[in-house]
């Protein structure tokens, strides 16, 4: 006995829909547009901070994701294709083993943390610990800490430092 034609058509559409969904999820971040939300970001020719930057990318700039390699996104910005680290987009969810499937099924994570917060928490220095320390030690000179945190090094200075120190990228 043959299955009804209507059943076969419906099953065909379901297969097409399932294949399209799987392709969309497998694509992960490719074709996605991300906004740079951290200052002092650059586009690199390789997924490596030690490579000479191709261009600066300002906060708020939209970049088109081409591919992903670990914590690095290959992006196109202002006609130039290069690499940017995920730290430039702290709100971009890193696709896991199943691409964006968990986010589609269960929604976005409750709270995302920055890499600085994770590093500090790993050392036991959370914002709460900092506030407590400031309260217990008002004599500490936090202006100097703020000054060090605000220190910026240009790409040229970084390259010169690497070269003078004989450091390999």
Topology of this structure?
Elements: H1 5-27, E1 33-35, E2 41-43, E3 55-57, E4 62-69, E5 72-77, E6 80-85, H2 101-106, H3 115-122, H4 127-136, H5 142-150, H6 155-164
Antiparallel strand pairs: 1-4, 2-3, 4-5, 5-6
Question: In words, what does this structure look like?
Answer:
This protein is an alpha+beta fold and 169 residues long. It has 2 domains: 66 residues, SH3 type barrels; 57 residues, no CATH class. Helices cover 39% and strands 17% of the residues. It is built from 6 helices and 6 strands; from the N terminus they run αββββββααααα. The strands form 2 sheets. It has a 4-stranded antiparallel β-sheet with strand order 1-4-5-6, with no helix packed on it. The protein has a two-stranded antiparallel ribbon with strand order 2-3. The radius of gyration is 23 Å and the shape is extended. The N and C termini lie far apart (69 Å). The relative contact order is 0.11. About 4% of the residues have low confidence.
Brief rundown of the structure:
The protein has 169 residues and is an alpha+beta fold.
What is the annotated CATH architecture of the largest domain? Answer: Roll
Strand content: 15-25%
The topology string of helices and strands comes to HEEEEEEHHHHH
The end-to-end span amounts to: 69 Å
The tally of beta strands, per DSSP, is 6
Please state how the strands of the largest beta sheet are arranged side by side. Answer: 1-4-5-6
Q: Which whole number gives the mean pLDDT?
A: 75
Specify the structural class.
Answer: alpha+beta
Rg, Cα atoms, Å: 23 Å
CATH homologous superfamily (4th level) name of the largest domain: SH3 Domains
**Main β-sheet: number of strands, strand sense, barrel status?**
4 strands, antiparallel
- What shape does the CA trace take? extended
> Quick one: CATH class of the largest domain?
Mainly Beta
Q: Which blocks of ≥5 consecutive residues have pLDDT under 50?
A: 23-29
CATH topology label of the largest domain: SH3 type barrels
């Amino acid at each position: 006995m043959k299955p009804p034609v209507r059943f076969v058509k419906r099953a065909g559409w379901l297969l097409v829909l399932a294949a399209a969904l799987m392709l969309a999820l497998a694509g992960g971040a490719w074709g996605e547009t991300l906004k740079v939300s951290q200052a002092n970001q650059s586009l690199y020719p390789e997924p490596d901070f030690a490579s000479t930057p191709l261009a600066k990318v300002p906060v708020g700039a939209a970049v088109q994701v081409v591919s992903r390699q670990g914590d690095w996104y290959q992006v196109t910005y202002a006609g130039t294709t290069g690499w940017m680290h995920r730290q430039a987009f702290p709100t971009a969810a890193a696709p896991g083993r199943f691409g964006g499937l968990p986010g589609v099924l269960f929604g976005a994570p409750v709270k995302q943390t920055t890499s600085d917060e994770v590093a500090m928490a790993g050392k036991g220095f959370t914002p709460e610990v900092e506030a407590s320390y400031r309260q217990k030690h008002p004599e500490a000179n936090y202006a100097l800490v703020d000054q060090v945190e605000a220190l910026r090094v240009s790409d040229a200075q970084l390259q010169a430092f690497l070269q003078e120190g004989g450091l390999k990228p």
